[in-house]
Specification:
The chain is α+β, with helices and mostly antiparallel strands and 298 residues long. It is 17% helix and 33% strand. It has five helices and 15 strands. Helix 2 packs across helix 4 and helix 3 crosses helix 4.
């Protein structure tokens, strides 16, 4: 299966603004790529890419005064299989959790699992440990929280999501992560591309957040918003929570003028030449009125 993925973002600033961008596919993406998966700019300005501690590909630049367009467009060849389903994946005892994963048992900025511990044990303490317990948490978050861009708030914590019963995909992930950590299951935040492949069209494209849990010696994908195994998930970033992987971290103010994302299956079995020809022009796609999260440092 071939999936075309990319974005186009236009910003405007009144002065030069240093920025850190988490807008590239993750360094561990298991896919053959056709084209270039990197942040490109119009006008062309210097950029520098590095890997952070989570293996995320991060781009640094200084947005010049005026208008700047950021974009990427690429094709990934993937196996087309849905997210793995392993109902017998076992939960690790605390003393058997690898040192590297202990941090994913702890509370973090948006995943205040310490504030949800009593509620988590009261709600899920009788569920079988391991995969069934994580699935019960997904079922709970999916049924209890209402999705809507109007509910987005960059400072919202998991306990606030649980109290308000509303949020966007990152809030679904934060609450599920927090409940898993409260139940001693290592859990981390992830975000990336997820197109409407094998499911009804859901409207303008956007980046999507989900979460991953460590069971049976490996990390597994769970998605509390959709609560179903999906096809064509392309990870971009991972971290303790969204504070580690903001789409744009700016050290100064800017205005967002355009935001659109595409993640579309390419029909048939095209060769690389035809794919590169397709990538010569960016696709038409509907802009999103409410863009994904960003962060401003002042």
């Amino acid at each position: 299966m071939f999936i075309r993925f990319g974005f186009e973002i236009e910003i405007e600033s009144g002065a030069d603004v240093p920025m850190i961008l988490a807008l590239s596919a993750h360094s561990t993406l298991d896919a053959r790529l056709v084209g270039e998966d990197r942040v490109r700019t119009e006008p062309m300005i210097p950029t520098r890419e590095f890997l952070d501690g989570y293996g995320n590909r991060i781009t640094r630049l200084v947005a010049p005064k005026g208008s700047l367009r950021l974009w990427s467009d690429c094709v990934a060849e993937v196996d087309g299989a849905p997210d793995p389903l392993v109902p017998d994946a076992e939960q690790h005892a605390i003393d058997a959790v690898a040192d590297a994963h202990l941090t994913h048992l702890m509370a973090s900025r948006y995943c205040d699992s310490d504030n949800l511990s009593d509620m988590a044990w009261a709600t899920f303490g009788s569920t079988p440990p391991g995969w069934p317990r994580v699935q019960a948490i997904c079922d709970f978050v999916h049924s209890e929280i209402s999705f809507g861009y109007k509910f987005a708030r960059s400072s919202k914590t998991a306990s606030e999501v649980n109290r308000e019963k509303t949020g966007v995909c990152r809030d679904f992930a934060h609450l599920a992560i927090s409940l898993c950590r409260a139940m001693n299951i290592p859990s981390r935040y992830a975000s990336g591309y997820l197109g409407d492949i094998g499911v009804p069209d859901s409207g303008p494209g956007d980046f999507c957040a989900w979460f991953e849990v460590y069971l049976g010696g490996r990390w597994f994908v769970f998605d509390a918003r959709y609560n179903t195994r999906r096809i064509g998930r392309l990870p971009m970033v991972r971290g303790a929570d969204a504070s580690d992987v903001a789409m744009i971290t700016s050290f100064g103010p800017y205005d967002l003028r355009l935001f659109r994302v595409w993640t579309d299956e390419v029909e048939g079995a095209p060769n690389d030449e035809s794919l590169l020809e397709m990538l010569a022009t960016r696709p038409e796609s509907e802009p999103l009125v409410f863009p994904s999260s960003a962060r401003v440092h002042r």
